[in-house]
Design brief:
Elements: E1 5-7, E2 15-23, H1 32-49, H2 60-69, H3 80-90, H4 99-111, E3 115-119, E4 127-131, E5 137-139, E6 145-147, E7 152-156, E8 159-162, E9 179-187, H5 192-210, E10 213-220
Parallel strand pairs: 1-4
Antiparallel strand pairs: 2-9, 2-10, 3-9, 4-7, 5-6, 7-8
Helix pairs in contact: 1-3, 1-4, 4-5
């Protein structure tokens, strides 16, 4: 499919996006092998760094740099990857949702970048990343309204559906999802070749967990 996607000019020089489509996935509620892989990754991080040392994990500063560039205090609104990392270092289990979401959480732990994950069939082009308008919000996953006024937000023809900290219920992954869009958020100075490697490893992890095949991909800017 054509990944028609726009980055608002107000965000130019602040963020680099990696976009990836996975087609033909089969999402399951649980996979013991994937769960064991997630647990092993969490255990290895905890053994190496210990509680309270998330800033020492390689790559963790990238997401903080991104948030600061976007005008967000990363100590008050955690990047989604750091929220996962802090749970892992505390010895708290990660939330288990389904095999596609769990696999991307594993990728986020390894790459230390915030990701968004969306059911492609619930999106209505055109897609865009811009700053939220006054009063703009969407219904979050397992939470109430997510307010995005003045914050970077993904929008489609129906309105806002995601940001680097949390995604919307409307476009969330279910057991019926067969196509998904992955959005990787990186700081603007993140090397394109490095982000390409992230997308390669993301595609490998998601197709390993849920089958399917990598489709369209691109970077912005």
């Amino acid at each position: 499919m054509d990944l028609g996607f726009e980055l608002d000019s107000a965000l130019a020089g602040r963020v680099r996006l990696g976009l990836l489509v996975i087609e033909g996935v089969s999402v399951r509620e649980r996979d013991p092998a994937l769960a064991a892989e997630v647990d092993a990754e969490c255990g290895a991080l905890r053994s190496r760094y210990g509680e309270g040392r998330s800033g020492e994990v390689p790559g963790a500063q990238d997401a903080r740099t991104l948030y600061k560039a976007l005008g967000i205090d990363p100590t008050k609104t955690r990047p989604s990857n750091e929220a996962l990392l802090r749970r892992a270092l505390k010895g708290e289990p990660l939330y288990r949702v389904n095999t596609l979401v769990d696999a991307l959480n594993l990728v986020s732990l390894r790459e230390q970048l915030p990701f968004g994950l969306y059911d492609l069939d619930q999106l209505r082009p055109p897609l865009r990343l811009r700053f939220g308008a006054p009063g703009e919000a969407y219904e979050g996953i397992r939470k109430g309204p997510v307010h995005v006024e003045g914050r970077p937000v993904l929008v489609d023809a129906e309105g806002p559906f995601g940001n680097p900290s949390s995604d919307s219920l409307r476009t969330s992954i279910t057991l019926g999802t067969t196509r998904c869009l992955v959005v990787a958020y990186a700081p603007s100075a993140y090397a394109p070749a490095r982000l390409d490697g992230v997308l390669d490893r993301t595609a490998a992890a998601l197709t390993k967990a849920c089958g399917g095949a990598a489709g369209a991909r691109r970077q912005l800017p």
